[in-house]
Amino acid sequence: MSKAGLAQFQQVFIEESLEGLDTMESSLLALDDGGDGELVHTIFRAAHSIKGGAATFGFPEMSSFTHEAESLLDEVRSGKRAIDGSIIELLLRTVDCLRGMFARAQAGEPLNDAVAEGLRNELAAAMGRGIPAGGVQARRAEDQADAWTVRFRPHPGMLASGNDPLRLIRELAGLGELRATPEFDRLPATLAGLEPSECHLGWTITLRGPVKRADIAAVFDWVEDECDLAIEAQHVVAKPAEAPIATAPVAAAANVADAGAARAQREAGAESSSVRVSIDKIDGLINLVGELVITQSMLDTFRGEYDATRVAMLEQGLAQLARHTRELQETVMGIRMLPIASVFNRFPRMVRDISQKLGKQVKLELVGEQTELDKTVLEKIGDPMVHLVRNAIDHGLETPDKRRAAGKSDLGTLKLEASHRGGNIVVEVSDDGAGLNRDAIVAKAVQRGLIASGEGLSDEAVADLIFQPGFSTAAVTTDLSGRGVGMDVVRRNVADLGGTVTIRSTQGKGSAFTITLPLTLAIIDGLTAAVGGERYIVPLVSIVESVQLKPEAVRSVAGGELFRFRGEYLPVIRLHDAFGCDNAIRAIDQGLMVVVEGDGSRVGLFVDGLIGQQQAVVKSLEANYRRVQGVSGATILADGSVALIVDIAGLVRLQGRRKAA
Amino acid sequence: MSDNHRSEALQSQYLTVNLAHEEYGVDILAVREIRGWTPVTRIPQAPHYVLGVLNLRGAIVPVIDMRLRFGLAREEYSATTVTVIVTVAGRNFGVVVDAVSDVLDVADDAIRPVPDMGTTVDTEYLKGLTATGERMVLLLDVDKLLQPQDAQMLEAALPAASDVKAVA
């Protein structure tokens, strides 16, 4: 096979393998939470395909490395070895290391590095086979050393996130005697190519002094996704000044940084390379193109024959063409819509790592992972969420003993929830932790001269203060948060997408950060309902079922109507009343009762009938008009007219208000 | 600035539209496009003069009937009935008028204040009038067409937006 041909397959292999690694990671985490034995098979299969593929596509190092992991998994699979926390931990690090390898493979760099060597030994050790002399011990010794070499190469966009490399270097200087040598290789050749808002420099930093690796890694914690970082201990030989540096295995902290960089790189790569599209969408496109071709050939028969008798047919053909084109356009737009699950999926691992590090017990709940949003929004919402999740675990949730003292269960809950609400995407990060400390925030704000005093400030106004640049009330700066870098970046990133961040917090009970993003492209599945000649879209997710009732099944009670459905009485909302439609069917037995669920309660929605199911591209009414109660947005039907999308929860509230009035 | 520039700056163009046998001018910079009347989708809880929304190349745009807005008698829509799409403060909306006639150059010093009496339309929505020969054109203040009542409604809608349950 030619080299170019192989390279093409390598790319496919890498993409597939990265997915395999994601599967391995999520399965490992599920296993850690007490998942069943089938997961082990899943992990084994993923590792096995990577091993096989790596050998075929010319990555022997990767193949032999994965082989070690596979052997360990095989022992677990065949029941020779019980799986425990340490093995899961080891395999998770293997996954990280493989990600690093794939990143290097894509960049065309040598695959093996110190981390891989170290892990290979650990994997071998876990299986009780011969440990290469000194392998593990050397690693232990590396955690503490007298001299370190730190290679720090910020990504060009690092400055944009509010991180200043110089500040980090100064912080490093506080740890010991520091010498930094800048690297100019990434400087553009001409002045014209110099982008002043980007960081083109890198540094090799020598740090002397009794420093722990973790301390160095901590300095770079906030930027680990935004730089390439290598921390290596120097083996001080004879002359400390010009010691030739023997690189040694790198410990877990750097490993994490490595994984972060690899992930960032992978994401950057994925942006330009591919989008995964569900087969349904592709089928829809093929259908549309097929119809377009038929329409085209039908129009083609008019070539040169302008006969007045056929005008009607021509018009019909043109209308069809217009409709297909519009549908094609919308379907193509729909390809950009991806479920938010791809962003959510990174959090189980992150939450696990951070909570372990901080000695907190955290249960992560994910809700609404299938909520679709535009790919561009999806890519940009990740970083703000990472900040919020880190903050929630570090500041929000308390340690188990503090929770017990406050009368809560040891296990803190962190909830990530995504939903469509009123033509917006709402992503909420909430915890049941300590909440914001109003007094501390006010004190800090007064000290920094932001406000004169806390008097007369609403809780919202106080909460808003934490979005000020550099604002932090953390008494001790931890390596996770508290440096005051973050909330302002979160707000700015979200504002760039045209969204807002709001906080609700109750001291002692928890806080919730809500990111609201305007949505121009979201697609929902809906049923088209007819009411008095008008058409409304009812979201499929809120529909329980639809029934035809006899008039006597509906009883009038004070202020409304009720009907019996599966043993419970549900209130009736007549859509024609709620929306004031004329000419609608009023007799219960002639229309249709659609049982819908919204805001946790079930109601019967009375409509004339249901026309059919369709995907609706949600358009905002607010962009040009205003919010309408009971309507979450609008969509454009196949004939080009506008149909409103019913917001069940809003409708229920609207009805409640009417009754009260 | 040269005199030439200044005289240009002091002149603006207005699209003139017909409404109940009177002529109104709409600042041409606010006009985005003119389209024939097409049926719209009614929206609930809207003021009576908001006819509904239409699909403007994928954007949902509200349409108001100028006659109803100004409290004039409703008229059957005809072949000359047009929807003028205007942009005010970044928002688009359509205005249904009886017909459009032409574009008028109006020097700023030819705009006179509207007398308090004698106009069908509330002077609140007018920024002045101008006369060219026999014609008298009332210049509309498009910024105010969706205001002030609508601004109030917007305010009223906001509590609903924050009507989310607190953290338990």
Automatic annotation (TrEMBL), chain A:
The modification Phosphohistidine is found at H48. It is an enzyme of class 2 (transferase). PROSITE patterns: CHEW, HIS_KIN, HPT. CDD domains: CheA_reg, HATPase_CheA-like, HPT. This is Chemotaxis protein CheA. Residues 2-105 form the HPt domain. SUPFAM superfamilies: ATPase domain of HSP90 chaperone/DNA topoisomerase II/histidine kinase (SSF55874), CheW-like (SSF50341), Histidine-containing phosphotransfer domain, HPT domain (SSF47226), Homodimeric domain of signal transducing histidine kinase (SSF47384).
Automatic annotation (TrEMBL), chain B:
PROSITE patterns: CHEW. It is found in: Cytoplasm. Residues 11-151 form the CheW-like domain. It holds the Pfam family CheW. Keywords: Cytoplasm. This is Chemotaxis protein CheW. It comes from the Bacteria. Transmembrane segments: none annotated. The keyword Manganese does not apply. SMART domains: CheW. The keyword Transmembrane helix does not apply.
